[in-house]
Structures are given as structure tokens and as C-alpha cells.
TrEMBL record, chains A, B:
Pfam families to which the protein is assigned, alphabetical: HTH_3
Cross-referenced Gene3D superfamilies: lambda repressor-like DNA-binding domains
Matches recorded under InterPro entries: Cro/C1-type_HTH, Lambda_DNA-bd_dom_sf, TransReg_Diox_bact_type
Domain HTH cro/C1-type: 13-67
SMART domains: HTH_XRE
CDD domains the record matches: HTH_XRE
Protein's recorded name: Helix-turn-helix transcriptional regulator
Length: 75, 75
């Protein structure tokens, strides 16, 4: 299940970040996370925790549930 | 932010589990997780990862975004 969730999640976060015209650095600063961590999320390498999902949602100014509104890859 | 997210999340998961008339043991078995882990989630002690959120959603037969549709405590 890992790649089928983490990869599309990463692309979804990247799109939401671009929608708000934030750089990875800016998003990282807003979340209090490292830029390399944001980069890892967007590449599908990070299994983000609930707390960090809420930090991302706040930083992206979207409802938390919107972060999970993406299509999982079929595998 | 931790308790203000994890505690209401735990209560939300507990309610969703009860809505489907599953015991903690049954939910754990469906997720491939331990019953003590489910118990920890419901008591707000676990910072659940994205992968486990998707396992929980599948086991509870709800859309993943529904798991994040709860009110964070103000603190």
C-alpha cells in the first residue's frame, strides 16, 4: 500500500503548495519543518504523521481533510 | 498542537468504529494492526501515519478524508 498512497499524496501536496504560490522553503518555514522533509513528502518518500498533516493544512490554508482527498494508485 | 489534535482524533475514530459495530479487536484485525495500537489511537496517544490512516479508512469502510473531518480542540 505504501507507494500507492505516498506517491499520489506527494503529488497532491505539491499541487496544493503550487496553488498557494509557496516555495518548498516557504511552506517548510510556515510548518516549522525542514525543506528537505517537504521535498521528501512531495517525492513520496515520507509517511507523514497526523500532527504534521495538520501543520501542513494550516500552512496551506486548507481544511485538513482536503489533504487526503486524492486518488490512491491501483496496484 | 499534539493533544488538541490527537485526543479529538481518537474520539472520532472510536465513534466511527462504533458506527460500524466493530470491536477494537475486529478493527485491529481488519487493519493488520495490534489491538493495543487501536486502543492507543482512541485514547489520543498515537500520532498515526498516513499509511495507517488509509488502513483505518479501508477497515472502517469510509473515505480517507472522513478520518480528518473532526474539530480540533482550541487550546
Amino acid at each position: 500500500m505504501n507507494d500507492s498512497v505516498l506517491k499520489p499524496f506527494g503529488l497532491h501536496i505539491k499541487q496544493l503548495r503550487k496553488d498557494t504560490a509557496l516555495s518548498q522553503e516557504e511552506l517548510a518555514a510556515r510548518c516549522g519543518l525542514d525543506r528537505t522533509y517537504i521535498s521528501g513528502i512531495e517525492r513520496g518518500l515520507r509517511n507523514v504523521s497526523l500532527i504534521n498533516l495538520f501543520k501542513l493544512a494550516k500552512a496551506l490554508d486548507v481544511a485538513p481533510e482536503k489533504l487526503l482527498a486524492f486518488e490512491v494508485d491501483n496496484d
